[in-house]
């Protein structure tokens, strides 16, 4: 964060450089199922950010020494394309990309029913095609939709959003200039169903009161605005045709439970119960098959 600049980030009427008020988000668009060869995918346009996410798995983890005999591992890889910023970025991972990959892996793993897939890996790739501040929040939002699109059982979607401070005022969803020359940035990711925070960072300095306000702004925007857009994207994908719906139900994914719901009507508790009962039924059938085989 900068903090020292002659740029007026917020005018005397409380209007920001891009015309937004302090508590306004940039325009957001989310699409699910945009890649045919991935098990699940999503595309998020958040202001001038463009992020593509692809999910592969669950599949056997290689090499074998990374396997966990009790659960699956979630391996997320965040990358910014060389052309995603104004000054061409050096291709390949850097310290920032490695850090963001790690925290997103942990956040997604916290909501994934990894115990259902021992020795497996779920690989999540996030490619930032265009960057304009807030890419980690856009990336984890896209990744969560992609995982649901892949039919991976989850305890809830993960939704990202950020707030911070610029021009001595706490604001929501920092833009590029606010991120560069502002005083603080607080990205977070939350599970709207439970209120669990699975990612929280802070760059810069805030008082306790300012942090509380930033946390409130980001949380409310994530739950009330971004999360319904995630659900709506999954609805559009699976409500396309009867064949799409049947294929989605076979996959057993979170997305299928919201086909006939509006965002405000989604009951995540029922979704989780449905997924759990479905997996329990499969487990019991496998046990019965094993017993019958032994008796023969």
Structural account:
With 296 residues, the chain is α+β, with helices and mostly antiparallel strands. The protein has a single domain (28-295), classed as GHMP Kinase, N-terminal domain (Ribosomal Protein S5, domain 2, 2-Layer Sandwich), CATH 3.30.230. The chain has helices at residues 95-109, 135-149, 176-181, 208-238, 242-251, 268-295, and strands at 28-32, 40-46, 49-60, 73-80, 120-130, 159-166, 169-172, 184-191, 196-200, 203-204. The strands form 2 sheets. A 5-stranded mixed beta sheet has the order 1-2-3-5-4. A hairpin with a 2-residue loop joins strand 2 and strand 3. The longest helix has 31 residues, at 208-238. 43% of the residues are buried.
Return the domain count: 1
Query: Strands of the biggest beta sheet: in what spatial order?
Result: 1-2-3-5-4
Mean pLDDT score = 84
| Number of discrete helical segments | 6
CATH superfamily: GHMP Kinase, N-terminal domain
Question: Quick recap of the structure?
Answer:
The protein has 296 residues and is of the alpha+beta class.
Describe the secondary-structure layout:
Layout: E1 28-32, E2 40-46, E3 49-60, E4 73-80, H1 95-109, E5 120-130, H2 135-149, E6 159-166, E7 169-172, H3 176-181, E8 184-191, E9 196-200, E10 203-204, H4 208-238, H5 242-251, H6 268-295
Parallel strand pairs: 4-5
Antiparallel strand pairs: 1-2, 2-3, 3-5, 6-7, 6-8, 8-9, 8-10
Helix pairs in contact: 2-4
């Amino acid at each position: 964060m900068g903090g020292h600049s002659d740029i007026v980030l917020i005018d005397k009427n409380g209007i920001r450089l891009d015309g937004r008020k302090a508590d306004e988000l940039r325009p957001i668009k989310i699409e699910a199922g945009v890649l045919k060869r991935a098990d699940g995918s999503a595309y998020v346009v958040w202001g001038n950010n463009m992020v593509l996410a692809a999910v592969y798995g669950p599949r056997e983890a290689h090499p074998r020494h990374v396997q966990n005999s009790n659960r699956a591992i979630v391996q997320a890889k965040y990358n910014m394309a060389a052309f995603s910023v104004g000054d061409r970025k050096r291709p390949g991972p850097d310290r920032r990309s490695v850090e963001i990959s790690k925290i997103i892996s942990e956040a997604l793993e916290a909501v994934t029913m990894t115990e259902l897939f021992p020795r497996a890996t779920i690989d999540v790739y996030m490619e930032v095609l265009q960057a304009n501040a807030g890419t980690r929040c856009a990336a984890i939002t896209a990744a969560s939709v992609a995982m649901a699109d892949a039919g991976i059982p989850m305890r809830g979607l993960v939704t990202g959003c950020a707030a911070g401070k610029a021009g001595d005022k706490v604001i929501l969803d920092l833009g590029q200039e606010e991120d560069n020359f502002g005083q603080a940035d607080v990205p977070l990711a939350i599970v709207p169903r439970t209120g669990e925070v699975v990612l929280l960072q802070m760059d810069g300095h805030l008082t306790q009161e300012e942090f509380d306000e930033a946390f409130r702004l980001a949380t409310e925007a994530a739950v009330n605005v971004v999360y319904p857009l995630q659900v709506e994207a999954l609805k559009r994908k699976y409500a396309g045709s009867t064949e799409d719906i049947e294929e989605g139900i076979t996959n057993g994914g979170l997305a299928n439970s919201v086909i006939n719901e509006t965002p405000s009507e989604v009951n995540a508790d029922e979704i989780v119960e449905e997924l759990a009962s479905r997996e329990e039924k499969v487990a019991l059938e496998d046990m019965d098959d094993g017993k019958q085989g032994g008796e023969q």
